[in-house]
Amino acid sequence: MAVSYQNLKTQTLDDVRAAIRAGTYASHTAGLGQGRLQANLAILPEAYALDFMRYCQRNPKPCPLVGVSDTGSPFISTLGKRLDVRADVPAYNIYRDGKLAGSATDISEIWQDDLVAFAIGCSFTFENALQRAGIDVWHITNNTTVPMYRSNLQTIPAGPFAGEMVVSMRAIPNDRLGEANAISDRFPYAHGAPVSWGDPSKIGITDIERPDWGDPAPVPEGFTPVFWACGVTPQVAIENARLPICITHKPGHMLITDVAEDAEVPVLKQD
Amino acid sequence: MAVSYQNLKTQTLDDVRAAIRAGTYASHTAGLGQGRLQANLAILPEAYALDFMRYCQRNPKPCPLVGVSDTGSPFISTLGKRLDVRADVPAYNIYRDGKLAGSATDISEIWQDDLVAFAIGCSFTFENALQRAGIDVWHITNNTTVPMYRSNLQTIPAGPFAGEMVVSMRAIPNDRLGEANAISDRFPYAHGAPVSWGDPSKIGITDIERPDWGDPAPVPEGFTPVFWACGVTPQVAIENARLPICITHKPGHMLITDVAEDAEVPVLKQD
After folding, report:
1. Contact map slice: B 205-244 vs A, CB within 8 A
2. Second label for B117, Cα 20 to 30 Å away, from A24, A39, A50, B251?
3. pLDDT tens digit sequence for A24-64
4. Beta partners for B167?
5. Cβ <8 Å between A192 and B265
6. Interchain CB contact of A156 with B (< 8 Å)
7. Residue B31's pLDDT band (boundaries 50, 70, 90)?
8. Does the beta-carbon distance from B267 to A59 stay under 8 Å?
9. Average model confidence (pLDDT) for chain B?
10. How far is the C-alpha of A135 from the C-alpha of A131, rounded, in Å?
11. Helices (H), B149-267
């Protein structure tokens, strides 16, 4: 039986993960998991893994790496003792030859021995910090997915991986812009400080009301649109690289880890 | 003709790099380069590069990756337009089959097409910040190399890479410990906050007066020994991995990059 977002919002990490793993919750994860680090996911063949890691290293704002599996392993022990990337994400996109070929809520049946899973930090960490500072985050309050745009900012290539940076937008009250900048700057594993603010056309966004991913969000009078580097960026690079197979999370539907979102480094204490 | 440390200390980055590249300066780089990010260097065959990157990702305190070359390329364009890792480090150690096989001030003649160069952040960044805050750093003031110790803290393995964490020690006045912690915590690409302080035996150091690398430094009355994760850690992991060939900087003799040491991310603006 399907579980509702409002119901899960007050649940523990274990309950949230159980619902996701069972496939009874397949929606976005903003605000879920009670303060744990959430991550974008990209799973691809080992043959491309070194170049993809170089791509992430060269583009740390959109692609802050927070965990990498051993080749063939669906576990990332630095992020969670029992975390299984085949089932612990609410919804996956499956790409073949660079094209979206389907989606799923569990990828156990298509797992391959040569796959490597990459977890990339996401903006939820600093969104929670913004909310704690009393700065409203509209898409969380309104249970939608953050608006995301393909910008004209170019990432630094590595092997076949290249492309424009994807950015996410939050409308921030004009008198709190400095504070929002400083708060997000404290979280380098969650995209850090904004990459742009104000006029969207500066970074090639022509219509702020029509995001390329996620849902539109208003920019009321007295607010400024602020753009952060977004973890969907590697999905664009992966599409450009036309890999034979690649599996990602569905935007907004993240991997919730065991690591505290304000941990200095995204590494669980090992036994 | 050899150039002295005291002479180079007031020189520009270009002058410092020219002396290093020409082989006329082959000593340590603490305090040189006027506020640029300095880095540990590890060069190894592509066959081991993915595991090594995973090792760095899982151990971000000792091994904060700040740059990675393309396979076969001695250039790391994100760290410097003309940076050449074959000549721009004052002194190199060359390991064969996991054993130190020699040293050099230039490795152009032994460069191979399958090599990948990794730059790993170093403590100089936060040392400069400590000095700006009026906290003396003894080994810089006294022109010696920071004392480094093999601790009993275990790193998280990846492939053949594993081993104890190497730590560096600075004696901090007791009434400034909190401040030294907070200052270094601001630099995640330079090992971040300390991993231990006080009794050295807590982390397996039996004789603080006999460091495993670098020079001894005093811990006067009223001071506490503070231990930071050290970029020599990957050298230990590399020795343990017994790679056919691996080239590193000589401890303390770092790669000086073009990137400002307080940059949010270690990436030069690309043209």
Report:
1. none
2. A39
3. 999 988 888 878 999 999 999 999 999 999 999 999 999 99
4. B149, B229
5. yes
6. yes
7. confident
8. yes
9. 94
10. 5
11. 177-185, 233-241
What DSSP line would sit under A123-176, residue for residue?
THHHHHHHHHTT---HHHHTT-PPPEEEEEEEPPPBTTB--EEEEEEEEEEGGG
Q: A124-233 has which fold?
A: PSTPO5379-like fold (3.30.2040)
Q: Is the dihedral of CA A19, A22, A28, A32 positive or negative?
A: positive
- In the prediction, which pLDDT does A271 show? 62
Residue type, A50: L
| Pair B16, B32: CB distance under 8 Å | yes
What letter would DSSP give residue B157? P
Q: Do domains B5-49+59-122+241-260 and B124-233 have the same CATH topology?
A: no
Tell me the one-letter amino acid at B93.
N
Q: CA dihedral defined by A203, A48, B111, A60, rounded to 10 degrees?
A: 30
Tell whether A50 is within 8 A of chain B (Cβ).
yes
Q: Nearest CB to B156: which of A60, A78, A264?
A: A78
Residue A49 with chain B: CB contacts under 8 Å = 50
Smallest CA–CA distance from B186 into chain A, residue: A186
Place B30 in a pLDDT band, splitting at 50, 70 and 90. confident
* Owner of token pair 């066959």: B47
* Rounded Cα–Cα distance for residues A187 and B211 (Å): 34
Domain boundaries defined on chain A:
124-233
Q: What is the ipTM of this complex?
A: 0.94
Strand segments (E) across chain B: 36-45, 65-68, 92-96, 99-104, 115-121, 148-154, 164-173, 196-197, 223-229, 245-249, 255-260
The CATH number fitting domain B5-49+59-122+241-260, selected from 1.10.8.420, 3.40.1640.10, 3.30.470.30, 3.40.50.720 = 3.40.1640.10
Compute CA A59 distance to the chain's CA centroid, rounded to the nearest angstrom: 14
pLDDT tens column, A69-94: 999 999 999 999 889 999 999 999 99
| Nearest-CA distance A185 → chain B (Å) | 8
Asked if B53 lies within 8 A of A58 by C-beta distance, the reply is no
